[in-house]
Write a structure and sequence with these properties.
Length: 149
């Protein structure tokens, strides 16, 4: 099966909010699960940043792309690494892609936990069974966050 290239384009209002919220996350005025993701552009070499929600399940941390195959996803796929920033502290990580068959439980947990901010990106409601996410799995990139050694 061909990988999905689904991408939910942000509106100008979304871009403005992401910049403002990203600044607040960077200085530490955010919830514990909010981080600023910094990733180097695969073509430009420039560092781009975007606010993200980190999900923890069973001692593992995951990054889900609710908008689909965004530029930050493509940049992480190209390099396998990026940094997470909070309160001015920057830490580099490796990002391991999660296979589609392993995504349903992660996607369910992500939507259930962050439904107020991400429900609009999912065609099924929060609280749905994990099996309902299987047909959608290829639309949502998921990465396990692995500390660099």
């Amino acid at each position: 099966m061909e990988p999905s290239t689904h991408f939910n384009q942000p509106t100008p209002a979304d871009r403005f909010f992401n910049r403002a919220f990203g600044f607040l996350v960077k200085i530490g005025l955010s919830l514990p699960h909010n981080y600023l993701l910094e990733v180097r552009g695969r073509k430009s070499g420039r560092v781009y940043s975007t606010p993200v929600n980190l999900l923890e399940i069973g001692g593992k941390r995951y990054l889900v792309a609710p908008r689909g195959y965004t530029q930050w996803v493509r940049n992480i796929e190209a390099s396998g690494e990026a940094s997470l920033v909070k309160r001015g502290r920057r830490e580099a990580f490796r990002f391991q892609p999660v296979a589609d068959q392993a995504k349903p439980e992660i996607l369910k947990a992500y939507l259930d936990r962050f439904k107020l901010t991400v429900q609009r990106f999912f065609p099924i409601p929060a609280g749905s069974a994990a099996e309902a996410f299987q047909p959608l799995a290829s639309r949502y990139p998921v990465f396990e966050i692995v500390p660099t050694q």
